[in-house]
Amino acid sequence: MPSNSPVTACRPQWKGTLTNRERFNRQMHYKPIDRSFNMEFGYWDENFQEWPIFVENGITNNAEADRFFNFDRIETVAGKTWLNPPFAESVLAETESKRILMNADGVLAEVPLDRHDTIPHYIRPSVTTPDDWRAVKEERFRRDDPDRIVDVDALRRRHPPDRDYPLGVHTGSQIGKIRDMLTFEGLAYACYDYPSMVEDMVETTCQLVEDFLDQVLGTIDFDYACGWEDICYNGGPIVSLDFFKSVVVPRYQRISAKLRAAGIDLWYTDCDGDVRPLLPSFLEGGINCLFPYEVNSCAHPAELLDRYGHELRIMGGVDKMQLARGREAIRAYLETLVPLVERGGYIPFCDHRCPPNVRVDDYLYYLDLKESMFGIPSG
Fold first, then answer.
1. Of the candidates 346, 305, 350, which has an alpha carbon nearest to the alpha carbon of residue 324?
2. Which CATH class for the 20-84+125-374 domain?
3. Gap between the Cα atoms of 281 and 276, Å rounded
């Protein structure tokens, strides 16, 4: 959850002549800017326990870190577009080194007892058969659930029309959260064993997103849309391209039509791994920006920006591996991003949560170097 604890910034905000909102919109639409939008995606949980700069200043989460480093403000509005109520999270068993728990998606997972930040080992999905899905859908995916009603007036008060920061609307997940519920292997099998069930799951999530968008679009002036589809690894997508194109893309197109009717023409999705096989389908569905764009599982961002031109934008793409290799590597990599920032449609930041093996002094060097390269106002 975002923290509202008071935070004293450790560095001044980058100077500029535009507001954060103006800058973000111009940069993402290839228009002249005063300097690059300044943001980062965050940090592993261990960083808040191991980096002295966080520990000594009481910084405990990513929201506080954003204010601590004085990054440009960017916000997102989200609704209840997934299962509700969530499953009760509980610990079912413990060994000397592992804890077995049920998560909010109803999946049994095995996690380290020391709670170090890692991907859980999933033991049992909450949905395996169409009968499982029917029961969960009836109980937790009701479109008439009163909790899905948005307090639009409250959102408008929180994000007034004259704000000076970019505001996004969250489009949920059309297949990534389904992967969470079925597990990686479970989704791969279900696409072949129960394709109608998976398509009904996709349709259900699409309807919930549409219901949310129908409440907020036209009442709040959004600058972008964003979603979450973590369905790739370093070998590519975990679903077949035919399935994705025939089942998922049409739902993207329905959502995209609503967004564009409301004047939103920038839509990014958070998808790790090698997204290149899915990119044509993303673009066909209306998703035209990648975030946080992992380099080692995919390619240098220049490869795709050169291939797709102004049709594509990228946010992220600063290789975390280079941040861990020290200052010479950091400078060499950032220099390869200069043409991309100058081109537009690209905002540089670490290509996922910054890991704790990056030295604090090197990370501060990275922030300083990023400012000197991309943060000095033009003119």
1. 350
2. alpha beta
3. 10
pLDDT tens string 297-307: 899 999 999 99
Structure-token match 């861990």, residue found? 324
Catalogue the E-assigned strands of the chain. 75-77, 90-94, 98-102, 108-112, 121-124, 167-170, 224-228, 232-233, 236-237, 267-270, 289-291, 313-315, 346-347
What residue segments make up the domains of the chain, in order of their start?
Answer: 20-84+125-374, 88-124
Helix axes 301-308, 327-343, angle to 10 degrees: 10
Task: Phi first, then psi: give them for residue 200, nearest 5 degrees.
Answer: -65, -35
The type of residue at 370 is K
Least Cα distance to 345 among 87, 26, 22 occurs for 26
* Angle value at C-alpha 46, between 44 and 51, nearest 5 degrees: 105
pLDDT above 50 for 255: yes
User: What percent of the chain shows pLDDT beyond 90?
Assistant: 86
